[in-house]
Structure formats: C-alpha cells, structure tokens
Write a structure and sequence with these properties.
The protein is mainly alpha-helical and 99 residues long. The chain contains 5 helices and no strands. Helices cover 73% and strands 0% of the residues. The protein starts with a helix and ends in a 14-residue tail after the last helix.
Amino acid sequence: MTDTDAKDFDEFVARNWGEESVYRMEKERIEKERIEKERKELEKLEQEFNNKFENDSNHKDDPKFTKLHFAATIDDVKIGELLISRGEDINAKDSNNWN
C-alpha cells in the first residue's frame, strides 16, 4: 500500500466509520437488543396468559369465550393489544352475546 493509498483509506474510514457512524451503529445495536428483549417479554407474557386462559372456568364453560374476552376480564391491556394486532376478532360474542 502506497502512502497515497493509505491516506485515501484513512479518509474513507474517517468518512464512513467516524464518530457519527460508530454512534449510529451502537444506537442500532441497542435498539435491536431492546426489540429482542421486548419480544421475549411479550412471548413470556403470552405464554403465562395462555396458561391462565386454558385454566379459566369461563373458557371451559363457554366455547365462544375468546382470549380477547379473557384479556378484558382480567384487565390485561398489553395482551389485549397483542391479540388485536394479531387479528383477534374484536366483535366476537360469547354464548351470552357479550363482546
């Protein structure tokens, strides 16, 4: 590598991997970690919710009683939002015609 090549390389690195780029890359890494942590927390919440739902007497007594009904019954807004975002029918009615 000649001196000119080294100088061009140093300028390239400074331009593309300078403080701003390092900051951006670190910010992206932190954001990915946050998203993954949130995904795992939601997965755990959903698993706990599913276990509660399966053991709920309303669910066992009423086949039309949905997970969204149950989330509303136990005031679990986060799970309710998750169910809705996944397409849960917000107009579903249980056997008593409640939705």
